[in-house]
Structures are given as C-alpha cells and as structure tokens.
Write a structure and sequence with these properties.
Layout: E1 4-12, E2 17-18, E3 24-30, E4 45-51, H1 54-63, E5 69-77, E6 86-97, E7 107-112, E8 115-120, E9 126-130, E10 135-139, H2 145-155
Parallel strand pairs: 4-6
Antiparallel strand pairs: 1-3, 1-5, 2-3, 3-4, 5-6, 7-8, 8-9, 9-10
Length: 160
C-alpha cells in the first residue's frame, strides 16, 4: 500500500456522519492548487475522510457543516479501485473558514409538538395546523406562533 502523510485543504460536501466504533466520516472536496490554470470543467478531487480520534470525531459531528473550509492532516491511501476516492485518515483538523448559513428560499414545514407550521420565505405570516391537518390559524409572524397555539389549546381544552 502506498500510504502518504499529507495536509490538504478542502470543503466539506455534506454533514459528517458517525461511523463504526466511534469514528466519523465525511467527503472533502479539493480544488487543484493551480485552479486558475486548469480548465473550468476540470473535476474537483474527492477525498473520503475518516477520523478515529475522539476529539476530532466530536468536532466533526457537532461543529462542522457543509461548506466549511478545513485543513486536514493525516495518512492518505490512494484508491485501489478506479473511480473511488482516495481515503484519508485524519489526525489533525483545522477549520480555516466556515460556510455560509443557509437561507430559506422555499416553503418549509416544521413541527411544534402536536402542531405543524409552514414557513414561506416570501411571507411573514405563518399558517398553523394541527398534526392531523385541522386549521388552527394564521400567525402574523414566526414570533406569534406560540401565542396562536396557546390560544388554540385553551379554546379546545388542550386537544391539538
């Protein structure tokens, strides 16, 4: 096996996932160092990363989000199968920059106990239903949801 110790900078593609026996896994997207000179359609490199260090695993699972720029240092093992990413066992993790916080652009359903609300980025008002689909009302804004639910529960004796 051609293992190499290296440090790589790249972006986290998706939320890191817990792995077996206290590990965490994630994909790191790496751009070539000479990205300005390569063709625009040149593919990025994907590294399949794993951490066995409990401190790094905890940070990956609790603090790292898609879009974060990381510098990872560890043992790189090239892929033995064509088309599969190389594997990097992370020994050191450094967050260089955090990704942008996602902004809601579409409608999103959310659950408040026995109630369901619909957030729409184009409107301040929030429709509220029971989990069974009964209309509760229209909250003037997200801060007014709790008040609307409280009124509904007092009127209906706590039945959602």
């Amino acid at each position: 096996m051609d293992t190499k110790h290296c440090a790589v900078d790249g972006w986290v593609d998706a939320i890191p996932a817990p792995g077996p026996r206290g590990t965490a896994t994630f994909d790191l997207i790496v751009r070539p160092a000479d990205a300005d000179t390569v063709a625009e359609d040149a593919p990025d490199t994907v590294l399949a990363c794993t951490s066995t260090d409990p401190r790094i695993t905890r940070e990956l699972l609790n603090g790292i989000q898609p879009g974060d720029l990381l510098r990872v240092t560890g043992a790189l093992v090239p892929s033995q199968v064509s088309g599969e990413p190389a594997r990097l066992t992370v020994g050191v993790l450094e967050v260089l920059d955090t990704g942008l916080i996602p902004v809601l652009r579409d409608m999103v359903l959310d659950r408040y106990g026995d109630y369901v609300v619909i957030f729409d980025a184009d409107h301040n008002q929030v429709p509220v239903f029971t989990a069974l689909g009964q209309w509760v009302g229209l909250a003037d804004n997200p801060d007014a949801i709790a008040t609307l639910i409280d009124i509904h529960e007092r009127v209906n004796g706590g039945d959602a």
